[in-house]
Here is the input.
Amino acid sequence: MKILDVIVTILLIVGGINLGLLGFFNVNVIAAIFGEATALTRVIYALIGLGGLYEIGGFTFGFKAVQHRWCETPATVKH
Here is the structure.
């Protein structure tokens, strides 16, 4: 699941940067790279949206599970 978490994080960073550039400078980087309203652009936007839903679910329902995946501590050794 760590791989999925990393992929989702990358998608959300790309989506956030794209929306920031769109809001501040009216530049849509994803559309500029992959074309305006192409099937690939729509797939990328859909993946970013699914990544957002995954994160909402992770923080709402499974925050402890996400925390355990990323914050594993070594077992304490009894002396």
Observations:
- The chain is about 75% helix and 0% strand.
- Residues 2-70 form one domain.
- The helical segments are 2-25, 29-34, 39-60, 63-70.
